[in-house]
Amino acid sequence: MPSSNRPSDASRTRLSPEERQQQLLRVTSDIIAADGVDNVRIPYVAAAAGITRPVVYKFFPNRHELIKGVLEDFLEDFARRTPDIMQTDDDADIAS
User: Fold this and answer.
1) Which domains does the chain have, with CATH numbers?
2) What is the pTM of this model?
3) In this structure, are residues 45 and 67 in contact, taking their beta carbons and an 8 Å threshold?
4) Alpha helical stretches, state H, the chain
5) Is 70 exposed, middle or buried (CB count within 10 Å of its CB: 0-12, 13-18, 19+)?
6) Fewer CB atoms inside 10 A, N or C side of the chain?
7) Residues 22, 30, 73, 78: what is their CA dihedral angle, to the nearest 10 degrees?
8) How many CA atoms lie within 13 A of 25 on its CB side?
9) What's the rounded Cα separation, in Å, for the pair 33 and 16?
């Protein structure tokens, strides 16, 4: 029987749906940072996450939705980290 690149059943960790979705967003973000958004492909994301393509498709129906998810996650994180900047009405405060 040929060997597989997949981890053995004993070494796999079952993630909750929320954890799996976050993992896929992190992996995709890493691919974007390393290789650019044009190189995001579902098979690459699946391989980097150690899962099969159907699992990725369970969470994201296509690469555009996956990339959109990364962008939305980034914007939510940015807004959380910068509440004072996001709520300022006085551009002079930013310029000085």
Assistant:
1) 15-84 (1.10.357.10)
2) 0.72
3) no
4) 17-35, 42-49, 53-59, 63-81, 83-87, 91-95
5) buried
6) N
7) 130
8) 18
9) 26
